[in-house]
Amino acid sequence: MFITxxxxxxxxxxxxxxSFVRTTGFTASQVMGREPGMLRSATTDEQVVExxxxxxxxxxxxxxxLRAEAADGSPFWARVSVSPMxxxxxxxxxxxxxxxxxxxxxxDVEHAALVASERRERTSLGLVAQxxxxxxxxxxxxxxxxxxRLLERGLVRWASFYLNDGGLRAVDGVDAGSAPTGRGTxxxxxxxxQVEIDRAxxxxxxxxxxxxxxxxxxxxxxRSDRPATSASGWLARRLGTSATGATTDRDRLPDDVASVVxxxxxxxxxxxxxxxxxxxxxxGVDVLDEATLTVLTLxxxxxxxxxxxxxxxxxxxxxxxxxxxAMLPEQAEVDGLDVWxxxxxxxxxxxxxxxxxxxxxxxxxxxxxxxxxxxxxDVEAAAAMGQLRSVVRSSVYEEAEPGAVLSxxxxxxxxxxxxxxxxxxxxxMRRHGDGWRVAYSRAGHLPALHVRGGEVTRLSGAGGPLxxxxxxxxxxxxxxxxxxxxLVFYTDGLIERRDRSLRQGVESLTEVAGSITALDAAGIGExxxxxxxxxxxxxxxxxxxxxxxxxxxxxxxxxxxxxRWVLPGEPASIGRARHAVLRTARxxxxxxxxxxxxxxxxxVANAVLHGWGQVQLRLYDTGDGLRIEVxxxxxxxxxxxxxxxxxxxxxxxxxxxxxADWGWRPARGGKLVWAKVRDSRR
Length: 682
Description:
The protein is α+β, with helices and mostly antiparallel strands. It has four domains: 2-105, PAS domain (Beta-Lactamase, 2-Layer Sandwich), CATH 3.30.450; 137-187 and 203-317, Beta-Lactamase, CATH 3.30.450.40; 331-555, PPM-type phosphatase domain (Phosphatase 2c, domain 1, 4-Layer Sandwich); 560-681, 2-Layer Sandwich (Heat Shock Protein 90). 33% of the residues lie in helices and 26% in strands. The protein is built from 16 helices and 25 strands. Strands 2-1-5-4-3 form a five-stranded antiparallel β-sheet, with helices on both faces. Helix 4 packs antiparallel against helix 5 (143-154) and helix 4 (102-135) runs parallel beside helix 9 (290-326). The radius of gyration is 41 Å and the shape is elongated. 38% of the residues are buried. The model is unreliable at 243-249, 553-560 and 643-650 (pLDDT under 50). Residues 1-59 form the PAS domain. InterPro entries: Bact_Sigma-Reg, GAF-like_dom_sf, HATPase_C_sf, HATPase_dom, PAC, PAS, PAS-assoc_C, PAS-like_dom_sf.
């Protein structure tokens, strides 16, 4: 195409070729004398056109790509190149070359869209991967808050998680110790006459979502007149006031937000809670593109599964530990003997184990002690342990000679078809002068230790095969224990390690037992644990039986004044802790710490009520009183309150504050609360 440069600044067309006609659909007669502007469309970039004009006014050639329109109105992409033709120094004509590059441009646009889509997918996959990484540490008390912040950095304007545990509540993490509510539990306290109203269609969409009756996502308007008792009304008011600072920073929304988008957090059998988000641009569900909705959906599914898993594990672990301890006796109190017992399951096993002990007052002058181990860490092992314990216990009351008892147990177990092999040591102790005569028999179990004045004797006589495999009558062996002597019964979890043989473990225990200077059973037991049970690889059961001397009440222990107990997170542990403090105070001659029993009750009660898993109790003789340390798995610090309105309780830390000096510090996976009760005599 040729165009003429006239003096008025116009560029009329003076010639076109056949290719121009085929490309544009305009005939030569239709375009002669007209300017090329006839090829413009509504989508033509006028800035590009002006750049071409500026170059032509300057007499300079130029090439641009722009959107043009054919004679039939169809748009096409054209690469336009303009070149000047001169007569001397004057531009007389312009050669304009149009090339249809529609196919190339469409391919470029498609490629750009594909690149953008892949970039979004990579971003989405990266976010999902990071969410999965954070959920690997679901026990961290801030995991859900970190996931919400991650979504804010890469996907939405604002995000927060709410779990439905007795009512919706904003959460930073998962409280594994909190028993989740059942499906369909109403949020808050709904009056009976309000329930049917709330069940009307769209009356309470948030509750319907929690009940699994409505799918998400759902847009919740924050300025609504929904009933105050409803889940929708509560959440709308909580978030609707956040812009004015009336709620916590976790719920603080930008001032211009009028609604949030809610997605249910699904568990295996019910909806566990909600994820609330604010889109980056606009409002409502429609502004969330497919990629964003996909990431949010994957996030809530993974969070729901992780929350369900951690709660299921915690629930099974509590159940298993409670079942295990229900099969064990409480701290034994027998006439004439100082007895200390200990049991702790291996933390790696969520299921019950097969270790057990029993201390029986058979008669006023006869005491039975048994410790055993059934192979395995499952319910079947626990069932076998329970059966075996019952058989042994009933047999001891009928026959005091250990060998005869185990022979009878062999026959009974063979008939009962107990599914797991088991080993045990059965001991009966009879008063004998100032001491006790000890008879024992072993069925495939490690020998107990007899310690007298630092000399250790392994009670390795009367050995035999595992219970149920005895074909010949069992034998018994005897020894005498005198005042000041003590016996140590144990299972292999105390001494067995991957880096040493069982024989080396027994030798280590023998060395430790011979060097103990504590003068009471609890002190002996705690010293054994502190030196051998720091990293057990199996369940541990230990029983220490000591024959008291006449001056035990006045003699002071030469061992380090520290004792440790690992207690289950259940109410029965409060009583055990009180007894532990009383026994320790007597053993250490700390008669001036009468408030310690009440202090430890409050600290352990708080750990049981607000924590989860095991509770560790440690006692220290500070020289001028007793230091009590209680460690649990809840990192939330303790606070003194004025009680709980409308119900009893809530004054625990006020009581501790008035009776003792106290404080707290973070511990691995939780917190440690300490209190010091001073000895008024020192």
